[in-house]
Amino acid sequence: MSDHELRVSKIRNGTVIDHIRAGQALNVLAILGIDGSDGEEVSVGMNVPSDRMGRKDIVKVEGKELSQNEVDVLSLIAPDASINIIREYEVAEKHRLERPEYVVGILSCPNSNCISTEDEPVDSKFEVLSDGVRCEYCETIIRDDLAAHISVK
Amino acid sequence: MRHDHLIDTKQLSRQDIEDVLDRAAEIDADPAAFGDRHAGKLLGLLFYEPSTRTKMSFETSIKRLGGDIVDMGSVESSSVKKGESLADTTRVIEGYADALVLRHPSQGAAKMVSEFVDVPLLNAGDGAGHHPTQTLLDLYTIRENAGLDDLTIGIMGDLKYGRTVHSLAHALTNFDTRQHFISPGSLKLPRSVRYDLHEAGANVREHTDIEDVLPNLDVLYVTRIQRERFPDENEYRAVAGDYRIDLETLEGARDDLTIMHPLPRVDEIAPEVDETDHAKYFEQAHNGIPVRMALLDSMLEDQ
Ligand SMILES: [Zn+2]
């Protein structure tokens, strides 16, 4: 472990999201719905030097393992990130992100006239395109700043 | 056609379209032969926004096939006002009917409902999204007047919010067509429609001036530019005037140009044009009956 990574404390059980593009750490937390209000222990490193990326962000969350849905959306805003699931201080699983075909229930549609924004029993659903995402219901395409469309529960 | 639901025209192949149009032509030739094909069948009408003509057109079509309607009635007087979700309402009403027709102001409404119901669902317009049955009657009219291959078509007006435009543009990619889109800059085709047309490899050009393309057109499809799309009255007037067809505009057109309009029009086509051989919009509206009969006939066949 390098000196830089030591700046962020070790966790016992939880998730380490590494190699996040510099500046995206807070958006990653937003995706995970983490704002500290539930008392979770969160460490964030921003603009940490990285051999591979120059600068990177890193997020460590105690007591939380990411769901597939969360990993999927993460892949859209932090495509280079790696995810380590930690159990008893050891890396139990390592994941590289893969772009999913769809992301469900995480992004909200910016089209206020879209049925998915109304009080109906459906989750939002976006098809992942090569350069953006597209609402499965109203077909609106979002290309820029996906993080702004993340609906935090 | 082998689809349970008709949500948009992207799901239709050339063969699907031709099957419906051929059946519509058969019905047109001998309506009486279809008079009791679906005796006892019920079509559920769910109109969440008023559309007298589209609704009457479906009503007429099912009755001409021997069937009848169950009608949710106006939204104001139904449980919808009490906050019941669209998903719940349609799940209840599907138990009363053999097929459903949905008109709804929200984009994607029909797509969502199709995830909840088992009876065939017809999208009769969802916000600025799609209007596939309109497109089938448009195509029927185009085929009768100009043919569907080696066709140069201009589509003019509100291309951004015009759902009939979106459905038609998708459907035309199945045929050998050149599509010219003519609109003010603020009402150009939405990104999502352009994306699909590009994916389909469509031959598409965009213009702001009708004069640039009019002489080449076999068909000119005109849609209404709505006042409420503009922040102020003056801006609307300035734009609307540039997208109006009258006898003077038509001096540059071919003699066999077919002019269409999904109706209702306001003043984008001058009444004097009605008297010319170009005007096919009333014929187009009448074609709604055989085309919707054909569609219902094929959807109810296996029910
Ligand atoms: Zn949407």
Classification by helices and strands of chain B: alpha/beta
Contiguous uncertain segments of 5+ residues of chain A: none
**Could you give the count of β-strands of chain B?**
9
* Low-confidence spans of chain B: none
* C-alpha geometry of chain A: globular
Proportion in helices of chain A:
10-25%
Tell me the number of structural domains of chain B. 2
Query: Radius of gyration of chain A, rounded?
Result: 16 Å
Task: Give a verbal description of the structure.
Chain B: Catalyzes the condensation of carbamoyl phosphate and aspartate to form carbamoyl aspartate and inorganic phosphate, the committed step in the de novo pyrimidine nucleotide biosynthesis pathway. Chain B: Belongs to the aspartate/ornithine carbamoyltransferase superfamily. ATCase family. Chain B: InterPro entries: Asp/Orn_carbamoyltranf_P-bd, Asp/Orn_carbamoylTrfase, Asp/Orn_carbamoylTrfase_sf, Asp_carbamoyltransf, Asp_carbamoyltransf_Asp/Orn-bd. The complex is a heterodimer of chains A (about 150) and B (about 300). Chain A has three helices and nine strands. Chain A has about 150 residues and is mainly beta. Chain A has two domains: about 15-95, 2-Layer Sandwich (Alpha-Beta Plaits); about 100-150, SH3 type barrels (Roll). Chain A is globular and about 45 Å long. Chain B has about 300 residues and is of the alpha/beta class. Chain B has helices spanning about 15-30, 50-65, 85-95, 110-115, 130-145, 165-170, 190-200, 235-240, 280-285, 290-300, and strands spanning about 40-45, 70, 100-105, 120-125, 150-155, 175-180, 205, 220, 260. Helices cover about 35% and strands about 15% of the residues of chain B. In chain B, the strands form two sheets. In chain B, strands 7-6-5-8-9 form a five-stranded parallel beta sheet, with helices on one face. In chain B, strands 2-1-3-4 form a four-stranded parallel beta sheet. Chain B has two domains: about 10-130 and about 290-300, Rossmann fold, CATH 3.40.50; about 135-285, Aspartate/ornithine carbamoyltransferase (Rossmann fold), CATH 3.40.50. The complex binds zinc ion. Zinc ion (ZN) binds next to loops of chain A.
